[in-house]
Amino acid sequence: MTLHEAIIRLLKQTGRAMSTREIADALNKNKWYEKKDRSAITDFQIHGRTRNYPQFFDRNGSMVSLRGMPVSSVKTNAPKTENKTQTLRQVDKTSDRGLLLKILMNEKNFRIAGSIDDKVPDTPGLYCIRISNPELLPPLFAQHLKERGHNILYIGIATTSLNKRFLVQELRARGHGTFFRGIGAVLGYRPPKGSLRDKANKNNFTFSATDEKAIIAWINKHLMVNWVVFNGDFEDTETQLIREYLPLMNTAKNPAVLEELAVLRKECRNIANGTDVF
Question: Where does the GIY-YIG catalytic domain start and stop, copy by copy (predicted)?
Answer without folding.
Answer: 125-266
